[in-house]
Amino acid sequence: MTLPQRLSALLIVGVVGIAAVLFLAGRSGPGSSTALALDSGRTAEVDAFAAAYPVSVQASGVTREFNLVAAPSRLEVADGLDVEVWSYNGTVPGPELRVELGDTVVVALDNQLPQATSIHWHGVRVPNAMDGVPGVNQDPIAPGESFRYEFTPKDAGTFWFHSHNRGSEQIERGLYGSIVVVDPNEPVYDHDLVWMIDDWLLDGDGSLNENFNAMHDITHNGRWGNLVTVNGTVAPDVAIHSGDRVRVRMVNAANARVVAPVFDGVTPVGIAVDGMLAREPFDGQGFELAPGNRLDVEFVMPDGPVSVAENFNGEGYQIATLTPDETGASADPSAGVDAPFNPALPESAIFAGLGIDHEYSLDFTSPMMMGADWGFNGQTFDNTDTLTVDEGGVYTFRLRNDSQALHPIHFHGQFFMVTGIDGQLVDEGHLRDTVLVYPGQAVDIALRATDAGLWAVHCHIQEHAEAGMMTLLEVT
Ligand SMILES: [Cu+2]
Asked: Mean pLDDT across the chain, nearest whole number?
């Protein structure tokens, strides 16, 4: 069954039949299915991951309810520059959803857009039916309809939410926000900032360019804008007392732009990637945030200003400025970092001896100049091969980029660790849910299958995903 056929089938069978159809769809996937047998000899590898982060969470009984209305609105991205956008509750980013670990999150999404939509909770390990991918684990939410998401996050950290329907258009128009899960046992910072970094492609008259999925963008590195914003504003200036302890949670919400923030005036200490605490402090300077990635850094505000600029491809866009307004002197700049870190995180060498269970070739599926389809192993999403793995198992994959474009690959539902690049052992010291694979590069990862269900795996350059670059991982 093709994807459109499956979607219309869902509409026909109605509520009672949806679970059964999804189940059947899950068994077969859009195309064929390949099962990876569980290697029962991998107890050391399973134990290594199990010691580092939990399979489940104990719900505290506290429920946090949020209402999100997705609708067209206007955003003043700079003085006098008003852009028509689509937003949650009238702002881009949408409201920051800040909850405590153990809270149950309920989000009522009201779709007042002219298109169907959905929300994906990027990096949050949610029950499969709450993951928000139309055609995989939920129906698209039609205009005028609503949907209730409910989940209890399993991990504290920096996550984000965004539309997962026609993402190349809907994310570009502004449908994203942050969800921060706070562990009450972690230190409290004087400033805990979220910076959602995005770019916009504006026409000469200041309006949003509406040529989504342009052929040039699909065949190259996606849609790169000409205006970079942080929290919907160009280069915000934040006043902070000297001596205050600052945590910055950076999120790359752009469709395609890779961002490598460089701090001038302070040395940012990296503490977490993709929401999850690192094994130990690392250099947070110039860290490459591909679309979807998050980076948490911390530092003590110095006496002078801090300037943060993007430096991935030399364009040098200003991201933000921190200006000391007076002396707070609550912390000694030489006091070091407060983050708890995660010393239990295994070293990648533990997984290096496992070999590669499955290889994904990332490439065009259409001959050059004969169309613009991207895929995994030669198949667009409509014909993709579903890979089946066992819940609780540890598996290794090679992401081999056989193309000339960048591909940040995002796994829904599970975290993974990079173990090698081009056959050389790599130990990043942190987990990920998204990894950037350069042209010609082969990135090896070890993935722990923690959550059952049918999960999307896709390129996070929205134009590539829209052109077919998505496959399925089924955890059974
Ligand atoms: Cu891609």
From this structure: 90
Give residue-wise pLDDT tens across range 65-77: 999 999 999 999 8
Kindly list the structural domains of the chain, giving each domain's residue range(s) and its CATH number in brackets, ordered by start. Answer: 31-54+346-475 (2.60.40.420), 63-182 (2.60.40.420), 191-327 (2.60.40.420)
Token look-up 């329907």 returns 165
Distance 200 CA to ligand 1 centre (A): 19
Burial class (CB in 10 A: 0-12, 13-18, 19+), 100: middle
Q: What is the pLDDT of residue 370?
A: 66
pLDDT of residue 2 exceeding 50, the answer is no
Decide: 250 and 193 in contact? Cβ < 8 Å.
no
Q: Are 299 and 247 in contact (CB under 8 A)?
A: no
- Point out the least confidently predicted range of 46-55, 72-81, 420-429: 72-81
Ligand 1 center from residue 310 Cα (angstroms): 21
Residues bordering ligand 1, an ion, CB closer than 5 Å: 407, 459, 461, 464
Q: What is the pLDDT of residue 309?
A: 96
% residues pLDDT > 90 (the chain): 82
Q: What percent of the chain has pLDDT over 70?
A: 91
Measured in angstroms, how far is the CA atom of residue 461 from the centroid of ligand 1? 5
Please give the distance, rounded to the nearest whole angstrom, from the Cα atom of residue 87 to the centre of ligand 1: 25
Q: Taking a C-beta distance cutoff of 8 angstroms, is the pair 266, 302 a contact?
A: yes
At residue 289, the pLDDT reads 98
Q: How far is CA 292 from the centre of its chain?
A: 3
Quick one: which of 433, 472, 456, 408 has its CA closest to 124? 433
Ligand 1 centre and the CA of 116: distance in Å? Answer: 24
216 alpha carbon – ligand 1 mean position (Å): 13
> What's the 363 CA to ligand 1 centre distance in angstroms?
9
CA 288 – ligand 1 centroid, Å: 16
Going from the Cα of 333 to the center of ligand 1, the distance in angstroms, rounded, reads 41
How do residues 315-354 score in pLDDT, each as one tens digit?
889 999 999 987 655 556 556 677 789 999 999 999 988 9
What is the CA(374)–ligand 1 centre distance, in A? 8
CB-neighbour burial class of residue 326 (10 A; exposed 0-12, middle 13-18, buried 19+)? exposed
CA of 384 relative to ligand 1 center, distance in Å? 16
Residue 214 has pLDDT above 60, yes or no: yes
